Amino acid sequence: MQRFIAAAVLLTSLVPGAVHADVASRRSPVVQVVDKVSPAVVNVAAEAIVREPDPFFGEFFGHTTRAQSLGSGLIIDPSGVVVTNAHVIEGASRIEINTRDGRNLEADVLGFDHDSDLAVLKVDAKGLPAVPLGSSSDLMIGETVVAIGNPFGLSHTVTAGVLSAVGRSVPERGGDTVFTDFLQTDASINPGNSGGPLVDVDGNVIGINTAVVRGANGIGFAIPADRARRVVSDLLRFGSLQPVWTGLRLSTISPETARRRGIDRSHGVLVERVYPGSPGEQAGLEEGDVITRIQGRPATVREDVTTALYSVPVGSNVSLTVDRSGNSMSVSLTPERPPHGLGLRFVERGLGLRLREDQGTLLVTGVAPGSPAANRGLQGGDRIIAANGQRTKTLEDLSREMLRSLERGGILVVVQRGPYQYNVTFSF
Fold it and tell me: 308-362 pLDDT, tens per residue?
């Protein structure tokens, strides 16, 4: 009899649902987040054709191979708009999106921005599951976050952790770019997670995960949703991130700058110049002012200011705390779209270059004597083929990069003379 009872108990334990009758009680917030968001998470497969040079005869006799990178993406609109990382699709000749329900869709690039490490793709499909970008302005350190993506090609992997920090400054792996506003989390983010969402327990997308910075010991990073929304909006409208105009030339205060300018501060952002009639002048800023906070956060390096300016819609008020001769004051700055042709005026008057469009490049038609361009050895007949790593096929391309360079303090252009190319850097 005891054996019969034991067998009956064993059979009962094998009946489907007998043990899992309380499954509803196990639907934790993390489970609910995954149910809500994961249908909008996709795998991004980017294929590039790479030419490998022949070891004896060079590139001309080399052969081509296909290289593939895998990443993640998030559908933010049912019409097929997908957000991912720029480094996932950089150099790709073909991009394929794999959805959770098994569809393989070829994607086109609507735009990308290397400095933000964001790209927007479009697939030809309707009614796709979508989750829009949320907000990152009210995040709490320690709150639970969930990362969803495809690390190492393992589709729809879920990791959970806490938000460890905001506003992290971290350098790009193998590059010169410094990202100053990353979210930090201990939710595991590995290669392949790039481009997937970081989500709070309410299912709001608070960031876009990135592996452009290599994490260590359980540290992962994500691009804040507020910055991503601003960049994505420009990429959808214009195909590239549009510059903003403040009329301020800024620099990070260094010990040498502090000594030379007599500044009693070891950190902050110095206002080197305020252009007449600009938003900076209208806000009341003056040369020699030191920006110490922006939007309530510390401003210790120039990138803190420029990042904040690119995280709000153009025309929005940005709050600054400014030190002027030892007195702290509050300033409201309203960045604007640059006036038409402003970037080219800086190219002509600041660099001393006259250019025209010719055969998909910019032909140098004149160099002002004694100008920075003349001092760097540029001459008529040279061609400007790229600026800051971006191709410059039109005057508008160069104008845009020139305006963005004013914030960085310099511009790198690629000059072609005959069959040769060389890099020229101009500092402001």
Answer: 888 888 888 999 999 998 899 999 999 998 888 888 999 999 899 999 999 889 9
Nearest-angstrom CA–CA distance, 242 and 105: 29
> Could you say which of 216, 238, 260 is where a domain stops?
238
Verify that 365 and 304 share a domain, yes or no: no
> What is the DSSP-derived secondary structure letter of residue 2?
H
Q: Are 190 and 152 in contact (CB under 8 A)?
A: yes
Catalytic residue among 194, 278, 311, 399: 194
Q: Print the domain residue range for 310.
A: 248-333
Whether residue 58 is predicted with pLDDT greater than 80 in this model: the reply is no
High-pLDDT (> 70) share of the chain, %:
87
**Catalytic status, residue 233:** no
| Each residue's pLDDT tens digit, 297-310 | 888 888 888 888 88
Q: What CATH number is associated with residue 104?
A: 2.40.10.10
Are 328 and 363 within one domain? no
Return the closest-CA partner of residue 290 out of 318, 247, 248: 248
Q: Which of 38, 87, 311, 323 is catalytic?
A: 87
Q: Concatenated DSSP letters for 3-32? A: HHHHHHHHHHHHSTTSS-TTGGGG--HHHH
- pLDDT at position 44: 93
Reported as half-sphere exposure (CB side, CA atoms, 13 A), residue 273 has a value of: 8
377: domain CATH number is 2.30.42.10
